[in-house]
Structures are given as structure tokens and as C-alpha cells.
Design brief:
This protein is α/β, with parallel strands linked by helices. It has three domains: about 170 residues, Up-down Bundle (Ferritin); about 260 residues, Rossmann fold; about 70 residues. Helix content is about 50%, strand content about 15%. The strands form four sheets. Strands 5-4-3-6-9-11-10-12-15 form a nine-stranded mixed beta sheet, sandwiched between helices.
Length: about 600
């Protein structure tokens, strides 16, 4: 079985090593490398579909009829001419000029970069969605460097794991480039755990999805995964629309969608500036809106914004230059306005927007009074690759059941996360499920909560979750002791292998322990499945509660602070013990200093 995480890491390390050995920056390197991953995916899918087509291919004159482009269209796959197939590129001679290859225009190609550029043009000719999207600047690479890159993504493990994992690898590289480049302050890449949280809460079932600040398309990809996991065909169930002002980001989006087999209509450039254009004429038409817009944008022309509409609650504050000084509430208004009468929206927003004053507060009041505010989630620091500031997730639901119309669920998740490294946090898969479970219980969807408990039990067994934590902790401690002894007794040349074997076993146990701890976290709060307000974590507040708080939507204002855990220790008694321990330590210290002084005197020093 292929270790996907190791494969991702190995591929990145190999590719980044080549970049470090060249004079190219991450910014120059990003798009061409993602283009090669795309080409590798397209070839894998081409071979898979070709095999299906050839199964029942008619025979004429003793020969199987050759496959044609039209055969692939019906199977939602790209037809690849021979010169655009990855295998063809891998097997080219080192001296390209000697091969006398010609491009589409009939010109002789003298470098591998020209050949790959030509391959990209041939792929674009097969798809209107990809026209003008794929990178065609491969001549910036030397033939040797480009040949090595092609070999890196010719890894046989990619055939083993299939196209879905190539999609994962594309996302992994996109993530890594986002950290390295921090292009436009990283706005082109929304961390996956935030995207998953948004999709999980909205639960798309089919219809029109708009992301009016679509970046590299993470909302579309995750929605596609969610819909597919529910047993539907994403392209049949969903219609994807995107707007992205930065054309570079739109190219990343279209490639990302293509790698995941998704079709979409993405507009970019000035006509896709959401402040001034409803590029797809979707006001009031969307089943779902998802977005991570740029925060705190200033100098938006208020007259142009007002003319463009989609402001059901009016303009935010305007300065003397007739500019909106902070566009957060323009975005919030757009997301609400795009929804149809049953639509749902989920988006990332600066934390400051939850209780900003002036006209922002008026807009927020009208939003709450509409009865369509659904859920608010506070997210802690370090969830973004280039920002350390906290943010909030907002959710609207115009189809809320009557019983919830006068309520908003507040979740304060600022202290609930997994540390990835010193500068980055995320929600693990189980943490995402736990947060989602709070929403299910608030909505009365207890069957989904029960299914999650069964999922935990399938991994952990039928033992009580807290007991399983104790058992696993004991197993890990025992295995560590065993490992230490085994490594010490192993022959010198075997020590590393023995340690590696134990490390692998320990990692598996520790992963299960982490899962058990998440099960305990959930079960101790909600048992077998009944929503209740948890101090410091969640509260279903009424509209009257929100009015009393001045229309603030800051979760911390409602959920309060979690009570300090009682460790069963008498405070006065323990302080007395600590005081006695300190006196004993001080006494020992004084005696030690006297002994040292005497020793120095005896030595004549």
C-alpha cells in the first residue's frame, strides 16, 4: 500500500531541491510545476478511460478501431494527442533539436521546453474551459532540469493510487507554494480545514454554487468531494460559478478543477471584480455561496458599488472621498443577496467584523432580524499560511426551519485545534467531525450524531471512550519501554531498523489515542446525542440575547468561559505542602553552599 503522505512529501522535496539548484524563484516555479502535475493527471485519466473504451471497441478488417476525441467527451475526460501524452514526453531523446520535431504551427522545436509548451497547447485545444489557462513558459527551464521534473512526476506510485490522489498531490503542492510565495498575501489558497468546515456545515446536495472570490478553487474541489461521497456525480449535481479578479489565481483554479475532474465557469480580470460586477448575473439565484474574500479592503468606489447592486441592507460607511473604507460588509451583503429563497452561505471573515460599529452594526442587526443567521464560529490564530490573525466563519440559511428562526448557534473554537508546526494550526478530520456534530445537534439531526459515535466505535471498539484512552496510554508507555530495551540490545547495524519498526507501531497507537481523546471530548459534552450549551464552547442564543449584546456576533460574548477543571486537590493544603518543600530545598541549598565553601578553603582558594 502506498503511503500518500510520504509520496506527497517525497515529490515536493525532489521538486523543491531542483528549484533550489536553479536560479528560479518559487513564483516562477509554481505554475509550470502545477502544470506538469496537471498533465500527469490528464495522462493517467486518459489511459484509464482509453482502457474502458477499448473493452467493447468494434473491429473492422481484423483491426480494432482507433479511439477518437469524441469517445472521451462522453466520459468527461480529456483526449490527449500523442504529442501531449506524458509517456511521449518522458521518452524523448536528450538532444531535442536532432529529433526535428515540429509544433502545431509547423516550426521546428529545439528544446524540451518548446515541446512541453506545444503539449500544453494541444491539451487546451481539447477543452474550452482550459483555453489560455495552462502554463506555456517551459523554456525558462534548461532541458536537463525540465527532464528531471518530468521524471519526478512519472513516479510509478501515481499509477497505483490513481487520479484522486494526483488531485491531492496538486493540492499539496498548491499549499506548499502558497506558504513559499505568499502571493497577494496568500489569498489564492484557503486552508483545507476551513474549507472543509464550510462545506460540512452547508452540506451541498445539488444546485448552483457561487464563489465570488474563488482563488485557486478550494471550495469547488471540496464540494465535489462532499457530493461524490454522498453517492452523486458532482458535475451532474452541481453547477460551479466563480469570480476571481487576479487572472493568475483563476488559472490555478481552472487547473485545480480539471485535475479533480470538475467543470466550472470561472470569470477573471476587471469584469470579475465582485465589488463592481455580478459577472454571472446570479443575484438571488444561488443554492450555495462559499468564499474566503480578502479582508478589510479599502478605497472601494461607493457609487460604482451601489450601481452594481446586491446590497439588500444598504451601503456600509462611506468617507468624504465617496469610498467604502472597509469592504467587509460589502462582501457580507453580496453573499446574502446571491442566495435564493432556500439558499445557504458559508464564508471566512475577519474577526473584527463580528462587532464593528456604525453602519456595519446596522447591517448586522438587519441580518440577525431576518432570521437567516445560522451559525457563527470563532477560529484561532495561525490557520492561514501568511496571516497569524484569528478569523470567523459565518453561515446563513434562508431555509432555516421555523423552530430555529429566532436562534443563532455560536461556537468558540479558538482553543480547539491541532498544531501542525510553530506557525500553523488546523482542524484534524475528527475535530472537523466533532465541530460539525455540534451543528447537527443544534439542528436536531441526531441520527448524524449517532452515526459519528458508531464511526468512533468502529475505530476504538465498544469499550467506553475514556477507558480506551487509559488502555492506549498504558500500551504506548509499555511499548516505549520495550523499544528502548530492544534498541539497546540490537546489533549496531540493526539499531536504526529496530527503532524505525517501533516508531511505526508507536505512531499507529498514538494516532488511535488521539482519536480516542477526540471521542472523549465529544461524548463528555453531548453523551448519546442531545444538544446543550457548553460554557466556553457553544451556545444557541436567541435574537433577544443578541439584541441585548448590541447585535454583536462574537461567539465569545455568548459562550462565556469554560470552568476551570477541578483536579481534586485542596488548594490550602497543597500550598502548605509547596511551602514546606521550598523550605527544605532552601535548607539543602544552604548546606550545599557551605560544603562548597569549605572545599574551596581546604584547597587554599
Amino acid at each position: 500500500m502506498v503511503n500518500i503522505r510520504k509520496l506527497e512529501s517525497d515529490l515536493w522535496e525532489s521538486a523543491d531541491l531542483l528549484r533550489a539548484g536553479s536560479k528560479l524563484t518559487s513564483n516562477q516555479y509554481c505554475m509550470p510545476v502545477l502544470g506538469l502535475i496537471f498533465l500527469r493527471y490528464a495522462y493517467s485519466r486518459f489511459k484509464l478511460v482509453e482502457k474502458e473504451i477499448l473493452k467493447n471497441r468494434p473491429v473492422r478488417g481484423g483491426r480494432v478501431l482507433p479511439v477518437e476525441a469524441s469517445d472521451f467527451v462522453s466520459k468527461s475526460a480529456l483526449f490527449l494527442p500523442r504529442e501531449a501524452q506524458y509517456e511521449y514526453l518522458i521518452n524523448l531523446p536528450a538532444d531535442i533539436a536532432s529529433a526535428e520535431l515540429t509544433n502545431q504551427s509547423g516550426h521546428i522545436m529545439n528544446s524540451l521546453g518548446e515541446v512541453v509548451n506545444n503539449a500544453m497547447e494541444l491539451v487546451e485545444a481539447q477543452s474550452e474551459q482550459l483555453t489560455g489557462v495552462l502554463p506555456k513558459d517551459y523554456t525558462i527551464f534548461s532541458d536537463e532540469l525540465l527532464a528531471e521534473l518530468l521524471c519526478i512526476f512519472n513516479n510509478s506510485a501515481l499509477e497505483e493510487v490513481g487520479g484522486d490522489v494526483i488531485g491531492r498531490i496538486y493540492e499539496y503542492f498548491l499549499n506548499k507554494f502558497a506558504k513559499n510565495i505568499a502571493q497577494d498575501d496568500g489569498v489564492f489558497f484557503t486552508p483545507k480545514s476551513l474549507v472543509k468546515m464550510i462545506v460540512n456545515v452547508l452540506e451541498p446536495q445539488g444546485g448552483v454554487l457561487l464563489d465570488p472570490a474563488c482563488g485557486s478553487g478550494g471550495m469547488f474541489v471540496q464540494t465535489g468531494d462532499f457530493v461524490s461521497a454522498a453517492g452523486m456525480e458532482a458535475n451532474a449535481a452541481m453547477t460551479f460559478y466563480g469570480q476571481e479578479k487576479v487572472e493568475y489565481n483563476a488559472q490555478l483554479c481552472l487547473m485545480n478543477m480539471a485535475v479533480h475532474g470538475l467543470n466550472g465557469i470561472i470569470k477573471s480580470g476587471d469584469e470579475a471584480n465582485t465589488f463592481y460586477h455580478d459577472a454571472h448575473n446570479l443575484d438571488g439565484c444561488c443554492d450555495y455561496v462559499m468564499a474566503n474574500p480578502p479582508f478589510n479592503v479599502d478605497k472601494v468606489n461607493s457609487e460604482s458599488a451601489q450601481s452594481a447592486g446586491r446590497l439588500p441592507f444598504g451601503l456600509p460607511s462611506v468617507n468624504k472621498d465617496k469610498e467604502v473604507g472597509n469592504a467587509n460588509y460589502l462582501w457580507i451583503s453580496y453573499f446574502y443577496s446571491y442566495l435564493n429563497e432556500k439558499g445557504r452561505a458559508g464564508f471566512v471573515m475577519a474577526s473584527s467584523a463580528t462587532d464593528s460599529s456604525g453602519k456595519d452594526r446596522d447591517i448586522r442587526q438587519r441580518l440577525v432580524e431576518s432570521g437567516h443567521m445560522d451559525v457563527m464560529v470563532s477560529v484561532g490564530n495561525n490557520f492561514f499560511y501568511t496571516k497569524s490573525l484569528p478569523c470567523s466563519l459565518w453561515f446563513f440559511d434562508k431555509g432555516k426551519p421555523e423552530a430555529l428562526r429566532d436562534k443563532v448557534l455560536f461556537i468558540d473554537a479558538r482553543n480547539y485545534y491541532t498544531v501542525v508546526d510553530r506557525t500553523l494550526n488546523e482542524w484534524s478530520e475528527w475535530q472537523l467531525k466533532n465541530l460539525n456534530a455540534i451543528v447537527w445537534l443544534y439542528r436536531g439531526e441526531t441520527e448524524k450524531y449517532a452515526a459519528l459515535l458508531e464511526e468512533y466505535r468502529a475505530v476504538l471498539g465498544k469499550t467506553a471512550f475514556s477507558q480506551r484512552v487509559e488502555e492506549l496510554s498504558a500500551e504506548i508507555n509499555a511499548l516505549r519501554d520495550e523499544a528502548k530495551k530492544a534498541v539497546a540490545e540490537a546489533a549496531k547495524r540493526e539499531k536504526k531498523k529496530v527503532q524505525a519498526d517501533y516508531d511505526q507501531r508507536l505512531a499507529a497507537l498514538e494516532e488511535t489515542l488521539t482519536t480516542a481523546k477526540e471521542a472523549v471530548w465529544l461524548y463528555e459534552k453531548f453523551g448519546e446525542g442531545e444538544y446543550r450549551d457548553i460554557p466556553g464552547l457553544c451556545r444557541a442564543a436567541s435574537l433577544a440575547d443578541i439584541e441585548e449584546k448590541g447585535w454583536s456576533l462574537t461567539p465569545g460574548a455568548y459562550v462565556g468561559v469554560a470552568p476551570a477543571e477541578d483536579d481534586g486537590v485542596d488548594f490550602v493544603q497543597r500550598m502548605g505542602e509547596i511551602h514546606r518543600e521550598l523550605r527544605e530545598l532552601q535548607k539543602e541549598s544552604n548546606e550545599l553552599m557551605e560544603t562548597i565553601s569549605r572545599n574551596w578553603e581546604e584547597m587554599g582558594l
